[in-house]
Fold:
Amino acid sequence: MNKPIRVAVTGAAGQIGYALLFRIASGQMFGPNQPVILQLLEVPVEKAMKALEGVCMELDDCAFPLLAGIIQTSKPEEAFGDANWCCLVGAKPRGPGMERADLLKDNGKIFIEQGRIIDRVAAHDCRVAVVGNPANTNAMIAASQAKRLPPDRFTAMVRLDQNRAVTQIAKKANVPVTAITDLFIFGNHSPTMFSAFHLAKINGKPLTQVIGHHEWLKGELQETVGKRGAAIIAARGASSAASAANALVDHVRDLMTPGAIHSVAVKSNGEYGFDPDVWAGLPVKTVAPGQYEVIKGLPMDDFARQKIAATNKELVEERNTVKDML
Ligand code: NAX
Structure:
């Protein structure tokens, strides 16, 4: 058995938190030989802290062999102290009539503070995964505050979009999801994202040779994946939670698994025409636990270039909206 690692989770009493913590504690994120200490952050409001207390009681009641400790706190310094991983899930939701720019700025304040504190108190090997929306720009904001931790330690989640696209394609081709490989999400976690179907394979064959319906790939697939979050809210009356938690388990597990090839929003260095310094969904290969390389040089056609330009434009606009805060 390894020495326990410390995993901070913000927004721990929220809906994603409720679907996530039990999976981390059961070993699905870090494997069956890795004990974890959960360091759970909520806002200093009685209702949230009470809800967190209830979640922790349930964690206790699972008697998870890998759960080596739980900290419940409303103090970020305590939650992030010596943390090896920080899962930043908590964020302010977009309220009725709220402009996207206001949401960016309100959440920007949270991620500025959390980025600074993580940089100050977290473990030297700390890695950060941002889920709270707008996730890409929040990761960029948190990273901008870090002086000790390099920017590549800050990632945002586009894995839910990858998983959504894989299932849509598997259904269309009438194959199991395991037949689909190399399906990458480029750009923002928003309806502008690009599900790069032209790079994907089905049972090792180019996807575009198996699915001849190219209008579906360019139209309905992009639309369904891009607007899936809204469709779930319309159907369930609440936003995606279990699937988002599942995607975060996949995101972190694959970043800890050498050889894994997956989509992660990371700092762009100009790959595929993204602006340097936006956090864009890109194809990555994990090269050592916690370390990855962006896969470069994949072929892009006119359609792909146009989609990437549109999602990059949105990321640049988001960065411009918050630039005075950085
Ligand atoms: P909930 O509103 O259920 O929970 C959020 C929790 O965060 C609340 O308990 C709240 O008290 C807490 N919180 C707010 N500010 C905090 C802070 N500064 N420090 C600590 N805790 C704080 O939302 P939930 O459904 O769990 O979603 C969480 C975030 O994930 C939202 O921003 C949501 O938009 C985002 N999502 C991102 C996805 C992605 O693929 N990147 C998909 C799912 C989800 O929509």
Notes: Residues 12 and 18 are 7 Å apart (CA to CA).
